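Narrative progress, year one. The postdoctoral researcher (J.K.) led the effort to move from monomer predictions toward full complexes, under supervision of the PI. The following entry was the first complex the group processed end to end, covering 698 residues in total.
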Amino acid sequence: MRRAAGALIRKDLRVELRTGEAVPAMLLFSLSTFVLFHFAIDRRSVEGDLAAGVLWMTLLFAAVLGMVRLFVAEREQGGFDGFLLAPVDRTALFVAKATVLFLFLGAVELAALPAFAILLLGPSPWGAVPELVAVLALANLGIAVVGTLVGALGIQTRARELIVPILALPLMIPLAIAAARATSPLLLELGAEPVPGRWLAVLGLYDLVFGLLAFAVFDFLLED
Amino acid sequence: MGAADGAPAVALRDLGRAYGERVALAGVTLELPRGATLAVFGANGAGKTTLLRILATLLRPHAGEAVVLGSALPREGWAVRGRIGLLAHEPLLYRDLSARENLRFHARLHGVAAGRAEALLEAVGMARRAAEPLRSLSRGMTQRVAICRAVLHEPELLLLDEPLANLDPGAAGAVAPLIGRASGAARVLISHDVEQGLAEADLVLGLRGGRPALLAPAAAVGADDVRELYR
Amino acid sequence: MFSRGLKPLSIASVVLIVGAFALVFFYAPNDADQGFIQKIFYLHVPLAIVALCGFVAGGVFGIRYLRSGDRAHDLRSYVAIHLSLVLAVGALVTGSIWAKGAWGQWWVWEEPTLVSFLIVFLLYACYQPLRFSIEDPERQARTASVFAIVCGAFVPLNFLAVRMAESLIHPRVLSTTGGSMPADMRTTFVVSLVAMAVLFVTLWKYELTSKQASMQLRALKRRLADDDDPWVPTGRSAAPQQL
């Protein structure tokens, strides 16, 4: 199973490096959204709750873009059946896709966060980087799991570009709540405060529940 | 593995499958011995591709029974996947990757050594252009790479959907040892070339509207019988 | 198959509903702060609780379908979710009316139940369009079951997160005397809850029976019309067409 997942991950990363369809789009989208926010809320800089809200909304919508691309590319390239024919555990596809989405999100955030800090964020986030990374990692895991699940669900339908956002956004609301509440103390004007542990716990619980669920049901989505 | 030498490669009884409103396949019953070739003829939409996909374990039968290489489908589909090779209508390859990258990927999925991929590319004459993205190759070349993918793991059953489409005579000759009778595998072959299909076959199945309209040993079937199906 | 116990359930529903109404109007006390409008609590909260249980039940039937392949479970799941969605809308509307009457606003973000319901509604509103957009009945049933399971698991997680988001600063707006209710209110509440639950099960069984009857009718018509295939449904539909 690890061999298959590894092969799939390498393949997806190679395709992305060669075609650049997902990550650049997600990044550009994030940057545009930051600019839009500046004009829409008419503020030169944001901090605390507002900053966390703007950041997470942008990241979640960018993630949705990535989700739509995750499986559609597979179908278009005609390669999906190729995997299904191999004598491997189909859950390897889930692990591979979730890992790829996680890596894409990480790549986007690597660029989007500095951009956010420059464009919109009032206080400097440098002091809080380790905690920020922890929150991002936990949240990205949840997004990756839910995104893979919803992407695979969407692939079955005819209107997949619509179904994926409509389904993914409500499912990610608890994650958004926890991520935003965990991030806002880190972005305060008067200096970063420690993250309330319970929000990290909620993120962890979310990741665990959806991770286990996805593991259990993913097989059924691939069968025909 | 699992089946005695005397057991057939494919045994179907009253196999059926529907797509929503349409009946795609119904009442297909046949036995294909190991190493033998079944030629499937029929007009577009007659159910040939559905049959192939069921045998490839990509589709579940909705009615009847299917036993492939000793394993009952769909329950034991996972056990035979590694022993079946499918050459479908689409190449099932990633267009942005090169031939070599595609084959190496499939080799990893099947647990096959990378050297075999190289040998196959050499055998079909694609070694020189193995590093270019498939997007830039012609259909005939892509077809050759797809054939390599199908036989990479030395399957005991080959499912071939118009294997020689887009291939020039030279290429057709190059792939014959891989997917022809000489390969030794049991084969299910879909072809629109009636004479050629009949020449290759041991058993002939003709489908019309999803149902078997003709089922006989190849020796007993003439080209005209087959052409009736397309009327 | 589904209609066992339908008559006694129907009678029980009628009795319980009439009983609940009687209790609400004649027995339960008028709330000191909120006045008469508070009585909508006896409609709103049972609607909410039963809808939630319905969604979770939809998920459970989804699991049973995936494990057994028996389409009857898929039908049960579909009807449970579809009815719960109706109840959820009811919960939202009654919650909104209550908020307007008691607090002067049509919507209050501080009330976690209401907010959670909005999210759950948004999610399950996708269920029927999702089903409709998949033509192959078996794939439709499988995808719908996965959806029902994932969303069923999501519901409690959602409630937890939303409640945690609001709990510190704002007290529950629409609660009634905070957890401890006087005996007459509690009796009325319990009866209303049981009435709503029994009503739900009755309606659920009615819809299942009705769908099964249509399926049998269609099968008979097919046979009489000389068409032999039992597995050819008539048209695209979000609901399961065949057992």
